């Protein structure tokens, strides 16, 4: 079934302008696209652009909801328009005219700026969380990233040194033929490559950014925009103010708008939504979900929707010797009462479908096991396993969790289950930014053995890698979501088989096998699969609410209209 894309209802007695206030988890809203996770895409969309993007739609049965559309590129390369070679490994992009940087001379955005963006995602100071996707796909990018990281071990990490290396070395598979023509060559065909190009990591980057260390406050303070808004001022970790970008031309941007005069983004380490505001306050909407989804949300087509989330799951830090015996890990999987967590979600998110999870990949994603083996807590069997392993009492395990969403409730429930089964556990809440850093660099961010986490797919078609590769592959290239340090040659081989597969069904079988093996190894403990949720169509004093399905149904802030009386 195909339905028309979702379009918001026409506003009445409203006009363009006003101030739109939005709230997002702190870790979902970095300013520098080179360092931004996929969850930051709805925010990055305000001020940056990529070769392709997404358009809004509420119903994922509409093919337009999950298929990338041309953004900086005039067309999405295909064999029909001669942009995709017969080997399906060579993509040629022609740049859209009229797209300009917010610089004094309003310089055009060129193919060279896209090349710079690909290089900058590999920076060794703050590499992109999406780097592993590109490193396993684009010809020569993995070698470029690892060589830069090796060079950085004995050189300063200042902006000048980073820029010097970046500009003196090339990625063999990413190059500009001229200002208007970009070529990207792949190491192997990839069913999902065009989808990857919509991620923040693939943003064009101007030469002005070379003067600043990626991800630094200085870089954020000197961003140059090519989207409908530009950053006017910000306080790191607290708030960002954006105003309309005078260099942006609506005619050169088919999929963004600039309805509000100003966007004020409040970064929150709390529940991911605003407290109640007085009726005369500017409208405020949530941008992106945290663990547990949006507090004010509605399900999207339930069982029939693409892109269910693994939300929540337990992550084991396998670098810690406590997990050396597989029976101790298995005891964790047996101890957790998934049914109790499901009840918790149903109480706090009424109407949003959840399922007890036994598999890593949720429904509506490539590689999902339709026979999903479900289980609930069995503390008696967990205690027996610990006894057979000779597990000795030690300091309580540390279970970290984000303060956002339902993170605290889930962590305390799991900690109680583990303690009852003979694994004393202490839940430790962290502000979003600190939590993200603890996952990114567990060896340096304090000791923890477990973490409550959630994973929302980064795109919706041919997306097995957003779970199995990101969460399980052992790779020397930074990035991905394998925060527990899982390494299994058999699983890596299955991932490679999936990436090499020419047909989707072969790839799905390999993704499913990789996920099954990792769950059997207790690399992670799936708890729930959650249906996608979207913000309400018409929150108070805001019109034009339009969701972006491949970005976790986050709100397209460029189209949101704050209430402005005629």
Q: Got a strand count?
A: 23
Q: Terminal Cα separation, in Å?
A: 40 Å
How many strands, what sense, and barrel or not for the largest sheet? 7 strands, mixed
Which percent range describes the beta-strand content?
Answer: 15-25%
Average pLDDT, rounded to a whole number, is 86
Number of helices: 15
Question: Which secondary-structure class do the elements indicate?
Answer: alpha+beta
Give me the Rg, rounded.
Answer: 23 Å
Q: Level of helix content?
A: 10-25%
Low-pLDDT regions: 1-13, 271-283
Q: Which outline best applies?
A: globular
Description:
The structure is a single chain. With 566 residues, this protein is of the alpha+beta class. Helix content is 24%, strand content 17%. It has helices at 41-44, 111-120, 131-135, 141-152, 159-168, 193-196, 217-221, 326-335, 338-348, 379-388, 407-420, 432-440, 468-472, 489-500, 504-520, and strands at residues 19-25, 52-53, 69-70, 90-94, 174-178, 181-185, 229-235, 239-244, 262-268, 283-286, 298-299, 309-316, 354-356, 397-402, 425-430, 450-455, 524-526, 528-530, 533-534, 542-543, 547-548, 554-555, 561-562. The strands form 7 sheets. Strands 12, 13, 14, 15, 16, 17 and 18 form a 7-stranded mixed β-sheet that branches. Strands 7-8-9-1-10 form a 5-stranded mixed β-sheet, with no helix packed on it. Strands 4-6-5 form a 3-stranded antiparallel β-sheet, with helices on one face. Helix 11 links the parallel strand 14 (397-402) and strand 15 (425-430). Helix 8 packs antiparallel against helix 10 (379-388) and helix 14 packs antiparallel against helix 15 (504-520).
């Amino acid at each position: 079934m195909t339905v028309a894309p979702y379009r918001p209802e026409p506003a009445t007695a409203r006009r363009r302008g006003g101030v739109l206030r939005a709230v997002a988890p702190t870790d979902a809203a970095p300013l520098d696209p080179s360092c931004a996770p996929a969850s930051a895409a709805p925010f990055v969309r305000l001020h940056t652009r990529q070769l392709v993007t997404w358009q809004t739609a509420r119903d994922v049965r509409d093919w337009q909801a999950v298929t990338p559309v041309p953004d900086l590129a005039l067309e999405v390369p295909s064999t029909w328009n001669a942009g995709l070679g017969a080997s399906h490994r060579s993509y040629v992009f022609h740049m859209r005219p009229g797209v300009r940087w917010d610089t004094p001379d309003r310089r055009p955005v060129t193919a060279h700026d896209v090349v710079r963006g690909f290089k900058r995602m590999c920076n060794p100071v703050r590499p992109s969380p999406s780097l592993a996707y590109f490193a396993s796909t684009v010809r020569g990018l993995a070698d470029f990233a690892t060589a830069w990281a090796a060079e950085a071990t004995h050189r300063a990490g200042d902006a000048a040194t980073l820029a010097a290396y970046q500009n003196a070395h090339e990625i063999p598979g990413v190059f500009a033929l001229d200002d208007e023509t970009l070529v990207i060559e792949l190491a192997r065909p990839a069913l999902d490559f065009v989808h990857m190009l919509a991620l923040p990591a693939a943003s064009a980057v101007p030469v002005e950014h070379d003067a600043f260390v990626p991800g630094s406050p200085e870089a954020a303070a000197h961003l140059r925009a090519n989207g409908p808004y530009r950053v006017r001022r910000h306080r790191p970790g607290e708030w960002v103010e954006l105003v309309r970008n005078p260099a942006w031309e609506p005619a050169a941007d088919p999929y963004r708008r600039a309805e509000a005069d100003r966007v004020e983004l409040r970064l929150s380490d709390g529940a991911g939504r605003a407290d109640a505001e007085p009726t005369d306050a500017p409208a405020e909407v949530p941008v992106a979900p945290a663990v547990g989804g949006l507090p004010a949300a509605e399900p999207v087509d339930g069982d029939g929707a693409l892109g269910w989330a693994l939300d929540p799951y337990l992550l084991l830090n396998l670098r810690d010797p406590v997990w050396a015996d597989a029976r101790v890990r298995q005891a964790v999987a047996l101890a957790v009462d998934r049914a109790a967590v499901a009840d918790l979600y149903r109480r706090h998110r009424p109407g949003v479908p959840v399922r007890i999870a036994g598999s890593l990949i949720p429904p509506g994603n490539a590689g999902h096991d339709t026979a999903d083996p479900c289980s609930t807590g069995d503390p008696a069997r967990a205690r027996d396993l610990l006894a057979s392993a000779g597990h000795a009492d030690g300091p309580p395990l540390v279970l970290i969790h984000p303060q956002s969403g339902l993170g605290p409730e889930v962590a305390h429930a799991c900690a109680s289950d583990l303690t009852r089964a003979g694994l004393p556990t202490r839940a430790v809440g962290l502000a979003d930014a600190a939590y993200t850093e603890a996952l990114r660099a567990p060896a340096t961010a304090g000791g923890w053995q477990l973490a409550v986490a959630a994973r929302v797919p980064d795109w919706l078609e041919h997306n097995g890698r957003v779970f199995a590769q990101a969460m399980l592959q052992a790779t020397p290239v930074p990035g991905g979501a394998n925060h527990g340090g899982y390494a299994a040659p058999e699983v890596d081989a299955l991932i490679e088989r999936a990436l090499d597969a020419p047909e989707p069904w072969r790839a799905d079988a390999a993704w499913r096998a990789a996920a099954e093996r990792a769950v059997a190894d207790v690399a992670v403990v799936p708890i729930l699969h959650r249906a996608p949720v979207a913000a309400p169509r018409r929150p108070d004093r805001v019109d034009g609410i339009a969701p972006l399905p491949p970005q976790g149904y986050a709100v397209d802030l460029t189209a949101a209209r704050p209430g402005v009386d005629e």
